[in-house]
What we know:
- This protein has helices spanning about 15-30, 40-45, 80-90, 105-115, 140-160, 175-185, 200-210, 230-240, 260-280, 300-305, 310-320; strands spanning about 5-10, 35, 50, 95-100, 120-125, 160-170, 190, 215-220, 245-250, 285-290, 295-300.
- By secondary structure, it is of the alpha/beta class.
- A hairpin with a 2-residue loop joins strand 10 (about 285-290) and strand 11.
- The longest helix is centred in the middle third of the chain and has 22 residues, at about 140-160.
- It is elongated, with a radius of gyration of 22 Å.
- Bound molecules: 6-O-phosphono-beta-D-fructofuranose.
- 6-O-phosphono-beta-D-fructofuranose binds next to loops.
Amino acid sequence: MKRVAVLTSGGDAPGMNAAIRAVTRAALAKDWEVFGVRNGYAGLLADALDPLAARDVGGIIQRGGTVLGSARCREFAEPAGRAKALAHLAARNVDALVVIGGNGSQSGSASLAREGFTVVGVPSTIDNDLYGTDVSIGADTAINVTLEAIDRLRTTASSHHRAFVVETMGRNCGYIALMAGIGGGAEVIAIPESEVEASEVAERLRAAYRRGKTHALVVVAEGAKHGVHDLLTLYGEQRASIGFDLRLTRLGHVVRGGVPSAADRLLATRLGAAAVDSLAAGRHGVLVGMQRGEINVTSLSEITGRMRPADTALVELARVLAK
Ligand code: F6P
């Protein structure tokens, strides 16, 4: 009999609950005991673990956020913090941990694995920047939320012959901006992996106005260095020659909120169950991911410090189609 604990860590992502449910029920189906850790790694340090039964994870598959709570926990990055967490797990005879989270969280899992604990990571971050998986839980919903905002802004932009800058989330990675920008037919997409200078954005808007477009949409990832500030300053100086009036909408944490999409529920369900299968097969110290539509595993040591690269062909495609 195994005793497995599950936690959600870092920025919450829609679909985390579906993953918690899948881990719990897949583990119970193997006659294992399951514990839910409250508030991510902080809960391991505080010994805040509760047993989870099948009914405890009922009615959560469609809920956003995480019923377990989440946190960013600096103490866990230190060896002393992890030693405290491991002591709590040992005292409860918990012999395996499933960590549902993004880059920072999986660095924590990699450290635990290096220190000899049995751990499996499940990729969950709206940023979709984790190496070792094509897609992480939450990214699809975040794209859809951003896209809905873009679609709504387009109608008002068009009515007033305005340009809109829409800033979406994505700290070091422009995946959400790129995908939603393409889906929303944006004139310009600015992401950290493919920066666009403010002067070039202004030039493209000017050109769009001269071509007779009734509106223009600029989608910017929050992590894009030349971001919104540079653009607004320059726009103030060149407004008359650009043609469009400009408005800014910052989506912020709205992008992370609300119910998970069908794709995220399915992904989370498959990955959560696969994490348990991986533990049962003795494959641990790995991230369970999805590559080319198939479940795969990648060593946690391999993903640490790396980032999923942006699809530069898509960046170019977006530029060509914006004409
Ligand atoms: O990592 C996911 C993410 O939503 C990023 O896109 C964003 O930059 C960050 O988290 C925000 O962090 P916090 O919720 O701690 O403000």
